[in-house]
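Lecture 7, part B: from sequences to assemblies.

Below are the input chains for today's worked example.
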Amino acid sequence: MSYRTLSEQEAVEYARSIPDLFPQDAQLVSREIGDGNLNFVFRIQDEGPSGRSIIFKQALPYVRVIGDSWPLTLDRARIESEALILENELYPGSVPKVYHHDTELALIVMEDLSEYQIMRKGLVERKRYPNFAKQIGTFLARTLFLTSDLALSPVEKKRKAASFTNPELCNITENFVFTYPFHDDPSNAYNPLLSDTVQRIWKDNVLKLEVARLKEGFMTRGQALLHGDLHTGSIMVTEEDTKIIDPEFAYYGPMGFDIGALIANLLLNYSAHEGHTLEPQEREIYQAYLLDTVVQVWDIFEAEFRNLWAEKAQEPYAKTPGYLDAYLRDVLQDTVGYAGCKMMRRVIGLAHVSDLESIEDPALRAKGEMLALSIGQEFILKRSTIASVNDIIALVTSSTVR
Ligand code: SR1
Ligand code: MG
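Predicted structure of the full complex, as structure tokens:
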């Protein structure tokens, strides 16, 4: 079948055609539930006794949030399905199961995680996830280490990098994360109360030089297979479990980009709490929980990465004294720099986050947004001074609105 976007009814017919997915007498209903920037997402459910449900994710040939003026490759569905399958091999159970992939229709049929919640929504409701740091820290260590030159032969790694070449999705990140928010671009959309601050950022050539260096790293440093868009909207959680979804931006890039994306989004929630109407004590307690989560994520990532290095490193220099420490320090400093860019783009650029957008009063929202911009700038400018995760926390807590 050549490419066409599926209607809800066509999605049902397609689901019936996949062997063993539903019982023969299933009473299937389908609903388009996608609220992301790029794709269609259908939930297809048997209203009969099995009660079974699955997810269809279909890529559109353009950026959904922009429209057909920004065409976008359908190959991202292949990349996403191959990344999910590989991530499940590297850390079983960390991603939804893939049941079927149709290259022509750019369609992935996968496990429905309806008992899970998008983590961003949970954080806006100030929920806590006791196992999250352990699970995501392990996911990061395993997926990054095990796809890098540290664990694979150089030939195998380059073959993987070639099959995950993802130019059009990288181009979105290059523009919407690294370029447009730092220039007066028509795609930007920021709170008018931030106007003076944003104008100052656009004129800050010291900051822009550092963003240019970080962008260059994103474009040229193929260290490991990244998820590529690891914000808290790409993570689904229950109180016990974590699943990572949506790796359509996967490509070979700098490890710190994934860890930085995650930390940025925890800190966007932290910043948003400056603007939410709350008892000061309640705010402080939740912000402390978020900072503690950042520390735990890094600590678990580092501990797992060190274990993997000791057990599985193939690189001949792996036993050279000082190499592991130097490697991790570079990843940490990249993490901080990329976290800074990711925080700033969500305030100035096209794509915002509900952590901040759920604050209705623009003046209160500006408090959170200003803090996010302040932390972001500190991270970008001071990343080379960072030697431990506690240094990151010190930069956050010393950041004030400026
Ligand atoms: C123009 S698309 C904006 C963003 O949506 C995705 O989730 C990525 O973060 C992308 O940058
Ligand atoms: Mg996504």
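Note for the exam: The pocket of 5-S-methyl-5-thio-alpha-D-ribofuranose (ligand 1) is lined by residues 37, 63, 65-66, 172-173, 176, 229, 350-351 (CB under 6 Å). Keep this in mind when comparing with the next example.
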